[in-house]
Amino acid sequence: MPKSYALIDCNNFYASCERAFRPELAERPVVVLSNNDGCVIARSEEAKALGIGMGTPYFKCRAMLERNGVAVFSSNYALYGDMSARVMRILSRYCPDVEVYSIDEAFCDLTGVPGGAAAYARRLRATVFAWTGIPVSVGIARTKTLAKLANRFAKKQKRCRGVFDLDASPDPDRVLGWTDIGEVWGIGPRHAKRLRAMGVDSALKFRELKRDWVQKKMTVSGLHTLLELRGFPCHGFHSGPADKKTIVSSRSFGHPVTRLDHMLEAASQYTTRAAEKLRKQGSVASGILVYLQTNSFKLGQPQYSNTLAMPLAVATAHTPTLIRAARSGMEHIFRDGYQYKKCGVMLSGLEPERGRWLNLLALPPAHRPHDGPLMRAVDDVNTRWGRDTVSFAASGVKQEWRMKREMRSPRYTTVWEEILTVQAK
Asked: What is the tens place of the pLDDT at every residue in 346-388?
């Protein structure tokens, strides 16, 4: 029996999360802004109909948003992360196999489910909406790449009512012909531009290309995309993206930073975030890089930027060790007299935790047996009770440098003080 892959994608996820707790916004256009309320990063269908483009700077469209009564929110990642986890738990409960692809997408195995894949997907879709308030679209096909195409069709074509099974379609080639080459999973902007110049402007035309030409011009990744469009699975379950080779954590400040202690707090906080991602993929880092920069768009102000990369004596995922290195580097490159806009941390030289290279002159990790369990305990507490339930003092308490989030909605599901209040009369 051929596999039946389903891609389940949350519709306009960030905007849908805001609406889930604000039913009065059901028919109202909604947009969500990026860090520091810089630009639009999510739009409801009503907002898209108004012509609000993705990435539009907020200051350019603010008047138009106000004229049209658009509900505007600062990004609320604590809420979005928790809602995503709830959706994924529902999928895991009812699907034999689930692979989380991103915060709002997951591949599910619907091979041999009772009643057929399409009927099962409709029940699954209804359950997710009833239990979380998040609408989802489901695309079903025999490969992951085709499932992505089917999902896009399900989302764009209202007659599909949110679910489309490409294998059950009477004319699957029509769907491939309808899909722009730039929308095909695995084909980046550079290859899409090149293919369009050759007259290959749809998934259907790409599928008809010669296998040898694709492998020569687009490497084995392009060949896998070609074979998947022909119905031959090349990407199995849990064969998703490889572990990252570097991990970066950086943000712009809500206000210009001029003090070293604030800069050190920010570096410590970003290092903490990077270390969490490092442990999540089961790796350790053997190098760390820190950088800072002023705002080059502000004319008339002195400009300065600098970067410092440092090797670590022993590859580690121990947050306090990484914070000490980051603070040391930041103290070295920080200069008084400048208004800093941004700083960041990058962990490099990533290795598997159980296969790291050791230094002949340093103690092996086994001589610090408490580090691993301590970090796992911190991660478990923060996963269960919310981010920064346990935090490091080096990151500061007030964090005056933090991003601007002047229109952030309450963190309804992760902070007791902000939980939704319901009054019955």
From this structure: 999 888 877 666 666 666 655 577 788 899 999 988 887 777 7
Matching residue, tokens 């709002």 = 104
d(CA 159, CA 163): 9
**C-alpha to C-alpha distance for 169 and 149, rounded to whole angstroms:** 13
* CA nearest neighbour of 85 among 154, 145, 156, 134: 134
Q: Which residues contact 170 (CB under 8 A, 6 or more apart)?
A: none
Given a contact cutoff of 8 angstroms between Cβ atoms, the answer to whether 321 and 274 are in contact is: no
pLDDT in tens, 100-132: 888 899 999 999 888 899 999 999 999 999 999
Q: Which residues contact 21 (CB under 8 A, 6 or more apart)?
A: 133, 409, 410, 412, 420
Q: What is the DSSP letter of 66?
A: H
Q: Which of 133, 134, 88, 94 is nearest to 114 (CA)?
A: 94
φ, ψ of residue 216 to 5 degrees: the values are -70, -40
State how far the Cα of 293 lies from the Cα of 306, in Å rounded to an integer.
7
Phi, psi of 289 (to 5 degrees): -125, 135
- Is residue 14 within 8 A of residue 42, CB to CB? The reply is yes
Question: Which residues, in sequence order, are bridge partners of residue 345?
Answer: 249, 290
